[in-house]
Design a protein that fits this description.
3-stranded parallel beta sheet, hydrolase activity, TIM Barrel, Metal_Hydrolase, 15 helices
Amino acid sequence: MTAPTVDVHAHVLLPEVERLVAGEPALAAARQLDARRNGPDALAVNGQMVRERLGVLTDVAQRLSAMDGAGVDVQLVSPSPSHYHYWADRGLARTVWETANTATAEHCARAPERLRGLGLAPLQHPDLAVQALDHALGEGLAGVEIGSHAPGRELSDPAYEPFWERAAETGALVFLHPFGCTLDERLDRWYLSNSVGQPTENAVALSHLVFSGVLDRHPRLRIVAAHGGGYLPTHLGRADHAWRVRPDAGNCAHPPSHYARRLWFDSLVHDPAVLRELVRVAGADRVLLGSDFPFDMGTDDPVAALRAAELNDPDFDAVRGGNAAALLNLKEIR
């Protein structure tokens, strides 16, 4: 009996969500901002890339076939971050999260032994986030996916305290996955908006959680950071130094490096040396296999990418699936 191979970073596209927001004036403004941040070349490539992958993003049979080809037994499926729509007003936000949660649950229910799901929570309306989390759990999902910030709010905002408390109380997974970068036009060429912007957003968001004391106040939180946590895990020495010498450097009880072992990280770092360092810093029990399926900034063979890091056998097996199986309460396979 061995733990299944579990990919915790895989996405589903939900056309029903996009139909809900079509024609909204605020959507047009959000897309204009997205265009400024990414630049025309990136948007053109993105559109073609998504069209080519529409089948595996929406059809369960195609998803399972791709999983078989990659040697993945179970996926934790989260909505495409393009469905966040953090510009939506309260009424529309509720419709978006309810629709996304239900649609994701229905997608996963077509292959319940192989698919687990995550819902959405409206970070732009912190007072509704608990309701969204409870709705996701009520649909049988494992938790929710969130971005790195909402307009005018960082994850350290006290308004999110009830959400963190509820997530900790229920044992829900919170998958931190950025969408867009606030460095805006500075990254509008050469796809810097993703290659530099995403790891930057991960590092900023996690730093807010660490330095503000969120992880001290809610030690049972189960937060999984996409993209290996971005730049943060490999630059914790500087964060620790600031914590030691600067009286203004946060309210956390321990050096920032302490909290790397209080979070979980996916393995999607695209460099075996960086993955080995992530395992060293966070511990092999805190790293989970991730592919960003099926987008082009992911990997088609996450197990091979993990194998390239040349971890010892117990650590390899833990990252390959043992850690995620424990988080998701999955059964072993023969």
